[in-house]
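[job 0417] fold request received: Phosphoribosylformylglycinamidine synthase subunit PurQ
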Amino acid sequence: MHAAVLVFPGSNCDRDLAVAFERAGAQVSMVWHKDTGLPDGVDIVGIPGGFSYGDYLRCGAIAANSPICGALKAHVDRGGFALGVCNGFQVLTETRLLPGALRRNAGLKYICKPVALRVETADSAFTAGYAQGDEITVPIAHHDGNYYVDELTLNALRDQDRVAFRYVYNPNDSVDDIAGVLSENRRVLGMMPHPERMAEAAHGGTDGQAMFRALMDQLATA
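[job 0417] inference complete; emitting structure tokens
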């Protein structure tokens, strides 16, 4: 598996995401935001957490207009996989590769702590390493993690089994307790919690490890 991790000014989890991919067995390329193309043979693009462009305007809005996002969109349009974590999830909504928007947390405070997530579907390359209903612990670190979609879109996400994760105890008032969503073709996942920060024992837990291992297995046969 060949993973490309995008890097924007202000990204601070790019190395964490790259290491998680590498430990799962992937070859990883770091791709700067001003690049206009992805390396040949990329299977999955990772959009890391952080504060791209200082999170000015809407979080992720400036990053979504970076040159590399044209290549990201083309990669997704031809059926490529993409994983956006935290700020990366915000970028995916701003590029319209995923529905919805990320708003300020209900308490208007930055939240950084481990949270309990419930796996809502195992029917994706990202969640195949879990069973539906599993509860896992993954850290969050965000100020704008309050996921919002209108009622029509929310019903579509439910009907199409596209809610990947829900918070067991909602920390930010996200609609329907949603912590992560899938694209229609199930090849793009955006999530606010950080699985790459819980991918080895030194992190204090390994609940995120199954995601990266499952990706390796699924992409090998995709």
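[job 0417] notes: The radius of gyration is 16 Å. The first strand starts at residue 2 and ends at 7.
[job 0417] exit 0
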